[in-house]
User: Which sequence fits this backbone?
């Protein structure tokens, strides 16, 4: 019993400082853990950004989650230099995932409600991730290409047994947070509207998830996969 408790506690400690890493498209700069609670992981926008060509009408986003239960939304800006959350609009509504590790999901920006997207449009996407201990952010600068097919050598896979549900009550940050340098992890977690209201999962199931993760290394929840896209 003591060892079970230790596993449980160490799992909680790990979860409390856990993060996520955008894998594809390539993030604006290398992952910086301490800056991830800030706008675009602390990377300032640039008019000369290095951009990844990304399908206008059907691509995928892949990431690694260190959290066992998390919500994610994707917002998009068509500005060449997007400096604030105010410059972004929701592109992929928030959804909740149970299960850590690799996760890759399809996106179709042409089917979003964002206007002005066409072949050759420069955009920036920002992932908003919440594993229960505050929002984390990473950006990628893209040029949208019509009819582009992503190489099948680009890794796109899910870890075993993840369960996906849509999370409807989370909202995108709108105004208060600004670009990276002005806030840091001690102050930014309160500075924008958090999707934490959507966290319907109980503490006991979170604890179960953590201890299952520590003990077994994988998740094996039975459940219906809802294709949210
Ligand atoms: C897209 O952005 C690149 C720099 O990231 C720039 O060189 C190019 O002119 C931009 N294209 C358009 C259509 O604005
Ligand atoms: C673009 O990439 C090159 C090569 O990696 C790097 O030297 C340059 O600083 C990058 N530019 C921006 C605006 O990030
Ligand atoms: C972009 O954000 C800045 C800073 O909040 C704001 O001043 C500007 O009006 C915004 N531009 C657009 C087009 O949303
Ligand atoms: C687009 O807007 C409609 C109406 O507000 C909404 O029902 C739909 O979910 C939105 N689509 C996306 C991809 O956000
Ligand atoms: C990737 O695509 C190439 C050609 O488009 C095909 O020959 C190859 O079998 C594919 N590889 C996989 C693993 O699907
Ligand atoms: C990962 O899971 C999501 C949600 O069920 C699904 O939409 C996506 O296609 C899966 N990705 C892969 C590579 O199977
Ligand atoms: C973070 O913010 C606190 C309080 O505003 C400040 O004391 C600290 O120096 C900041 N840290 C960084 C790395 O900017
Ligand atoms: C952030 O919120 C927490 C709890 O909601 C509170 O204890 C803390 O003082 C807040 N920090 C700031 C900088 O407002």
Assistant:
């Amino acid at each position: 019993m003591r060892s079970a408790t230790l596993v449980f506690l160490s799992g909680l400690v790990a979860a409390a400082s856990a993060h996520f890493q955008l894998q594809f498209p390539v993030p604006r700069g290398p992952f910086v853990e301490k800056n991830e609670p800030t706008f675009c992981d602390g990377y300032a926008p640039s008019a000369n950004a290095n951009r990844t060509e990304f399908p206008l009408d059907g691509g995928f986003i892949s990431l690694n989650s260190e959290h066992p239960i998390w919500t994610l939304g994707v917002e998009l800006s068509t500005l060449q230099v997007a400096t604030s959350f105010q410059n972004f609009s929701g592109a992929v509504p928030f959804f909740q995932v149970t299960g850590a590790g690799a996760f890759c999901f399809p996106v179709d920006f042409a089917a979003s409600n964002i206007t002005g997207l066409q072949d050759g449009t420069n955009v920036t996407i920002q992932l908003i991730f919440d594993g229960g201990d505050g929002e984390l952010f990473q950006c990628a600068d893209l040029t949208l290409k019509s009819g582009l097919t992503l190489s099948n050598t680009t890794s796109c896979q899910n870890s075993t047994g993840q369960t996906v549900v849509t999370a409807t009550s989370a909202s995108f940050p709108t105004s208060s947070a600004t670009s990276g340098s002005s806030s840091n992890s001690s102050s930014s977690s309160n500075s924008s509207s958090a999707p934490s209201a959507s966290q319907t999962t109980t503490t006991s199931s979170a604890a179960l998830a953590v201890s299952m993760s520590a003990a077994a290394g994988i998740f094996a929840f039975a459940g219906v996969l809802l294709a949210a896209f």
In short: The first strand starts at residue 20 and ends at 24. The domain at 2-216 is CATH 2.60.40.2550 (Immunoglobulin-like).
